[in-house]
Amino acid sequence: MNKKENIKKNIIDISKIVIFLSVCGVLLWCITPIFLPKNNTKESGIKYENARGFYGERHNSIDILALGNSDLYSAMNPLELWNSHGYTSYVCAEPSQNIFSAYYLLKDIFTCQKPKLVILEVDQLFTHNEADDIDDAFNNILKSKFPLFEYHSRWKNLKTEDFTDKVSYTSKVESKGYIYHNKIKPNKIGFKYMKNNKNSTITMTTKMYVKKTIELAKNHGADVLLVWYPSATTGTIDRHEAVQKLADQYNVPFVDFNVNQYDTGFNWLTDTRDGGNHLNYNGAKKMTRYLGKYFIENYHFTDHRQDNAYNQWNLDYQSFMKKNKLL
Questions:
Q1: Which of 113, 133, 302, 304 has the fewest CB neighbours in a 10 Å radius?
Q2: Interstrand relation of 89-93 and 117-121 (parallel, antiparallel or unpaired)
Q3: By C-alpha distance, which of 145, 159, 137 is closest to 45?
Q4: Minimum mean pLDDT among 140-149, 185-194, 200-209, 302-311: which range?
Q5: Taking the CA of residue 22 as centre, how many other CA atoms within 13 Å lie in the half-sphere pointing to its CB?
Q6: Is 315 helix (H, G, I), strand (E, B) or coil?
Q7: Which residues pair with 256 in a beta bridge?
Q8: In which region does residue 209 sit, left (phi positive, over 0), alpha (psi from -120 to 50) or beta (all else)?
Q9: What is the pLDDT of residue 161?
Q10: 278 forms bridges with which residues in the sheet?
Q11: Alpha helix segments (H runs only) across 198-280
């Protein structure tokens, strides 16, 4: 085979590969809607339904959206904010959420809600290494473009309605994403953990997605607030300073309850449920009450308590309090 024929053969082989990959891409694009859950219930196969109850809220009715990991859903109680100030908020928090999944979740949020403020809980910014972050970022891009990668296991439970285009995200989450715990297991060393020596590096990939998340929020008209709730397992002075540099760089405020308790009365002996990793209801109440005051001083949110369109919030608050025997 001469050189000219060899080049021709290579071109044909490459063309076959390109055509094959293109066909695979089209098939993925066509099949994906079948596997995408048609509602936001756990039974439908949607991941972390508690974080996605915003779909079931009235469109553009949520003023404050918060993104983060389990520290967030243990520390921010939207129904407390509602009862005290009439602000509508939702906690879109997932176990071990990272900034990459938070970014794509925020994109979903903006399809049905128009928050005035996006809170980013920053405990999720401290990851293992750059290689893992690049891998996580790539996986989230794939799942965003082709949800089939996220929901492929649903093939055993497909129903007739899965072959239609109709999506009905109507399931509500009464607690608005907050997860209630009343157990007390104290952290007896208090804030001494802040002097610990832990890796305080925020990787370049994470920084890039922090920037993308802040820009996404601002492009949709939302302010951004960085928050770190008390965390004896992850907080340190060096990490606080690393996040503060990011906050200063992007000109967004940063509230860190690890370095300043803001007269909340927070107490490690009574306000944690697992020795310092997560807060209990008592701790969450103190954190949320402070944020309510902070919002009054720094933002202009509407008190919806007398608006009949928001009556369901009053009912949800009463139901939540009775269910957990808090009344």
A1: 302
A2: unpaired
A3: 159
A4: 140-149
A5: 6
A6: helix
A7: 228
A8: alpha
A9: 58
A10: none
A11: 204-219, 237-249
